[in-house]
Amino acid sequence: MPTKTTTNEAAAGNARLYQVLCGVLDDLRAEAPASSALYHPPPSNGDALIQARSRSLLHLFLKSRFGVLAFQQRESFVTDGSNDGGIDAFYIDDQRKVIYLVQSKFRATAGNFASTNMTANDLLKMDVKRILSGELKNESGIPYNDRIKKNLQAAIRRLPDAAGYAREIVLIGNVANLSTAQLKRLVDGYHYEIYPSERIFQELLFPVITGTYYNDPKLLIKINLGNVRGAEAHLDYDAQTKSQKTNIKLIFVPTKEIGRVMMTYRNSILKFNPRSFLELDRNQVNREIEASIRNKSTNEFALFNNGITITTDNTKISQDTGRRGTAQLVLTNPQLVNGAQTAYTLCQIYESCIDSGNFGVFQGKEVLVKVITFVGTAPAKEVKERTFLVAAISKATNAQTKVDDYDRRSNDPLQMDLQKAFYEKFGLLYERKRGEFSDGLRNGYISRDLLVNRENLVRVSLACGFRVNQARAGISKFATEAELAVLLKLSDFPKYAYGYEVLNDLGSLCAGGRFDDVGV
């Protein structure tokens, strides 16, 4: 029978995540100019701090949802303030052709953040129709603020085909007190989506602490056609799997472009790779890859390197770029499943070239890229199968490389489900692969005591099964897919969470000299 979390455990998990959220919001505040009193209130002014964090929650949404990285750019989308017509922020997505209008409610305590709802009056303040129709004043004749008029309304006027854009309301906060019909009326019939507290933690906070927030679905890569022979720039092949139809393209891509892409996407493009971005620095192969770029003026790199494998939902190659000898490769929702070591090293070289302003080392050097595209739009029931297939491709393409056994299992469905359960129910961060939370640790968003170590989780699960002697011995033999499938049970994750906290407490006591005879 599945073990359930208690109310107290859920509250403790929510408190942890709220604390991490406040840390991230404070970090976003710190990006504001020092002269901005809105984001840098006096430490003694608690109310002003809450207001600053509330405004920073809008920045978190813009960063995680749309990949807007620069503070000043995000700030240009914030309209929050007096006479804002109930609209706190906006974003115009030119790729999806959607105008997003945001209202957000931040709460001062973890309990209120999880349970307090927006009211009907909150939503009635949204003058969506008036503002979108170009009205400059509210119904009482009071002018809207300059951010509404000069940022939002002016941005819409600049759109050459504004009528072709959908309008969507985003509510960042809990609305469990309002029915679907009530919400529809309160937002003037516009399509809406809701970010209650749990979705904020899952979709806005988690990507930041794992460095996967850059989620621009369209990845553009430039291709040099100077060395291509024949009418096509690539080899094209269709392959039918048991669950999906796929297309495979083989194409040589400039190494400079791979370096640029990796620098931009980092962990966001490595979700299904057994390695994390910062962990790639530990492999001595990097030096050999770097030497083949820096120390040779010719293109031996194309001969010696095994290449890169990318999975994607859609692929387009166009030679109509207006520039002779150049084509464009456009990938939708790309994931780099093999060749991360190569891409990371090219990224490091690319960053050094930015510093020097000289990209000459990349001249004439290309790398083979295999692009695996899933054909057709996957209905909801196929999304999980597609996810499993991507994980399987990653596992297969990394089978011949030196990867830690636990890292190789990191994208197994059980591992992903365990991570989700630990995070959502207990506010704990199960590290499926090494370095997954390096960004969060480096930036001070999270503390190490929130991390659930993979090997220690195996020990805890053995102890929960009364296999104490095995829990104290070597556990490398349990890193196989078959052993982990038998040992770890998703239904038992609350037991693991409790046992893990006990293990940590014992470790702390032993370190303090109170239980010197206890081995962990």
Q: Please, could you describe this protein's structure?
A:
This protein has 3 domains: 7-210, Restriction Endonuclease (3-Layer(aba) Sandwich); 223-402, no CATH class; 414-511, no CATH class. Helix 18 packs across helix 21. The protein is globular. The protein has 21 helices and 14 strands. It has 520 residues and is α/β, with parallel strands linked by helices. Residues 513-520 have low confidence and may be disordered. A 5-stranded mixed sheet has the order 6-7-12-8-11. A 4-stranded mixed sheet has the order 1-2-3-4, sandwiched between helices. A 3-stranded antiparallel sheet has the order 5-10-9. Residues 272-441 form the Abortive phage infection protein C-terminal domain.
| DSSP helical segment count | 21
Rg from Cα: 25 Å
Low-confidence stretches: 513-520
**CATH topology label of the largest domain:** Restriction Endonuclease
Pfam families: AIPR
Protein name: Abortive phage infection
Organism: Granulicella tundricola (strain ATCC BAA-1859 / DSM 23138 / MP5ACTX9)
Domain Abortive phage infection protein C-terminal: 272-441
Please write out the topology.
Blueprint: H1 7-30, H2 46-66, H3 71-75, E1 89-93, E2 98-104, H4 110-115, H5 120-124, H6 128-132, H7 146-157, E3 166-172, H8 180-186, E4 191-195, H9 197-210, E5 218-224, E6 235-240, E7 245-254, H10 255-265, H11 285-294, H12 301-304, E8 308-312, E9 314-318, E10 326-332, E11 335-338, H13 340-356, E12 366-374, H14 380-397, H15 405-408, H16 413-426, E13 429-430, H17 438-442, E14 451-452, H18 454-464, H19 468-472, H20 481-487, H21 493-511
Parallel strand pairs: 2-3, 3-4, 8-12, 13-14
Antiparallel strand pairs: 1-2, 5-10, 6-7, 7-12, 8-11, 9-10
Helix pairs in contact: 1-2, 1-9, 1-16, 2-9, 10-13, 11-13, 18-21
